[in-house]
Design a protein that fits this description.
With 504 residues, the protein is an all-alpha fold. It has 18 helices and two strands.
Length: 504
């Protein structure tokens, strides 16, 4: 059998189980996407039954996101070093076990601990999904695969509130809110068994030690930034919140300096900084940050606007978001299968402008009709927004990873997810200024009357973020995502020569 001299691994045929393996990793992605939002619907019931304080309720949601964001880069690197299948299965097993802990928790303290641990397990599981896809599928199939991935993520994110409302109102076996966590058990067990049978093992060509100094510096720097952003608004932005945010700059600067030093010594840095010299990677990270920022502002304000401002029930609010999910899936499939292979970067830029136009339309409708806005009028602006987001999110993942060497794909995947999470944290923090401050002091009833005005005001910032993403996308190569020349695709079997072979 011929040998790949670059990676010193033998050639192999395309894995015939790759589509079944894809279904397994997509189920894991769906579980995580749903779990991020499903708990929001359950919070009133959780607080009533467990007696959780307001701060504990906030951390039940924020603790998961914080642990998830802090662990993504490390989780991706662990997959590169010790095997992506192995780390993925460890993450699925841990996610399933911590879901059981959350579902059986008898106190808010135990539930909070379970949620933080659940976020840490998701940080092991999620980065391996993109890595496994990247090394399992040949280049000619990745466009279709990333289109499917984007659609599943869109469905999971927006189906969370609807799934939560259905589970709570169904009150299966009298378990109430606990079912939003226990529903992960059958999916997790099935994914664990199927993953062990169907996913092939792969890892970086050269084994190396984990960059522990980089892990400590990155975790400390991101914690100092994300923790105040997560808690600042609820605590009234006390003076102590500004100190950690300021300290995060030199700590993250020290992290960058250490990573450069380690790379010069021939070590294995946590983040391969040379990746940022690639236009597709650096520009894609900027778009990810803006995409997360827009999402953080919009979805928090939109959920409160529907339920408190317009009086929608949780179930009606969840159903009203389904057109957005469908539009995102349609946009993702259309961009990956038809538009991006032919037109490249301009499709993603069109998506940014389309999403911004949807927000401008929502501003006009919400400002004009106030609390008397009809259900269909709240749905119409979501369609161009969803289409635009779908045009961006599905091909963007493929573009970001397109020039990343396979031995670094786990690290790149973790960093890409971290960028999105940090953008969302910043977006939630900005909501205190662009949304909550507009509500003003007073009773919940008085604030509800101001909700349409506050929501319309916040949408201008969401539109600005999407417009900025349009501008940043000029950093990508014009032909990003387009099909390779015929000469490069004439012998598809050669695609395997640049990919590491499963080791197990």
């Amino acid at each position: 059998m011929p040998e790949n001299k670059l990676l010193r691994t033998p050639l192999k045929a395309v894995d015939p189980r790759r589509w079944a393996a894809l279904a397994v990793v997509l189920i894991a992605s769906f579980m995580d996407a749903v779990d991020v939002t499903v708990v929001h619907i359950a919070l009133p019931d959780i607080q009533a039954e467990t007696g959780a304080s307001t701060a504990q309720v906030q951390w039940i949601t924020g603790g998961y996101a914080l642990a998830f964001a802090l662990g993504l880069i490390t989780g991706g690197r662990l997959g590169d070093l010790f095997g992506r299948k192995k780390v993925f299965l460890l993450g699925v097993a841990g996610f399933t076990l911590t879901s059981l802990v959350c579902g059986l928790a008898g106190s808010p303290e135990l539930l909070l601990a379970g949620r933080i641990a659940q976020g840490a397990m998701a940080a092991l599981m999620v980065p391996q999904v993109l890595s496994i896809i990247h090394v399992t599928f040949p280049e000619r199939e990745r466009g279709k695969v990333f289109g499917i991935y984007g659609s599943v993520m869109a469905l999971g994110t927006l189906a969370g509130p609807l799934v939560g409302a259905l589970l709570i109102e169904g009150d299966l076996f009298g378990l109430g809110w606990r079912t939003v966590f226990l529903a992960n058990l059958p999916l997790g067990i099935a994914g664990l068994i199927a993953g062990a049978l169907l996913i092939g093992e792969s890892k970086a060509a050269r084994a190396a030690r984990l960059d522990l100094v980089g892990v400590v510096l990155a975790t400390a720097g991101l914690l100092a930034l994300v923790l105040p952003l997560t808690q600042g608004r609820e605590l009234g932005w006390p003076a102590w919140t500004y100190g950690p945010m300021a300290a995060s700059v030199p700590v993250l600067g020290a992290f960058v300096a250490w990573e450069r030093h380690l790379a010069r010594r021939g070590g294995s840095p946590l983040v391969v900084l040379s990746l940022f010299w690639r236009r597709s990677f650096a520009g894609g990270q900027g778009v990810q940050l803006l995409f997360g920022l827009a999402s953080g502002v919009f979805f928090l304000a939109w959920t409160l606007y529907l339920q408190l401002g317009l009086g929608f029930s949780p179930l009606r609010a969840g159903l009203s978001g389904m057109p957005l999910s469908v539009a995102m899936m349609a946009g993702a499939g259309l961009s990956m299968q038809v538009l991006v292979p032919r037109f490249g970067r301009v499709v993603l830029q069109a998506g940014g402008l389309l999403a911004a136009a949807g927000m401008v339309l929502f501003v006009c409708l919400a400002g004009h009709y106030g609390s008397g806005i009809a259900l269909w009028q709240t749905i119409v602006p979501l369609i161009p927004m969803g289409l635009g987001m779908g045009l961006i999110i599905a091909p963007l993942t493929d573009v970001i990873l397109s020039e990343v060497p396979h031995e670094h794909v786990g690290s790149a995947s973790g960093l890409t997810n971290t960028t999105l999470q940090l953008g969302q944290a910043v977006g939630v923090a900005l909501s205190s200024v662009v949304f909550f401050d507009r509500l003003g002091p007073g009773s919940p009833a008085a604030q509800a009357q101001q909700m349409p005005h506050a929501f319309a005001g916040s949408l201008g910032y969401v539109a600005a973020a999407f417009t900025a993403a349009f501008a940043v996308l000029f950093a990508l190569p014009r032909t990003a995502g387009t099909k390779a020349p015929a000469a490069a695709t004439a012998a598809p079997e050669r695609e395997q020569e640049a990919r590491p072979v499963p080791v197990g």
